[in-house]
Amino acid sequence: MSSEYKIPSQTRIGHVHLKVADLDRALDFYCGLLGFELMTTYGDQAAFISAGGYHHHIGLNTWHSKDGPPAPKGSAGLFHTAILYPQRKDLALAVKRLLEHDYPLTGASDHGVSEAIYLDDPDENGVELYWDRPRERWPRSEDGSVNMFTKGLDLNDLLREAG
Q1: What is the predicted pLDDT for the residue at 1?
Q2: Is 2 among the domain residues?
């Protein structure tokens, strides 16, 4: 493969589509808890949800997974869906809401370029909630490359943003 081709810098991941066992349970999590907006459904088998009225950021369906078990942890597949919040305060408010509802977190990390919270949805699909620090604050190596890392995130400091 040629390494000369570069994908256009304006390219974005448009949406993720998840197989779920129970559509109502998934909607309770993504809409009821995380606050996504239901845009449309396909009968009782699929739903499309968004932030801010986009046609959909996340598709949820039971086409091949209705009442099925979660995917095995040791198999190939999606590691997590990452949901990018616009500001640190927005992430803090989401985390505060999760904690108020006793929703279990699986991790909290400072990556230098971002701060992230990790959890699983009801179907054990990994979910990352994060915000990016401004690019000018990203840690850099001497050669100018991004120097990401994983350190523990101070949740108390983050939650102070929520007021």
Answers
A1: 66
A2: no
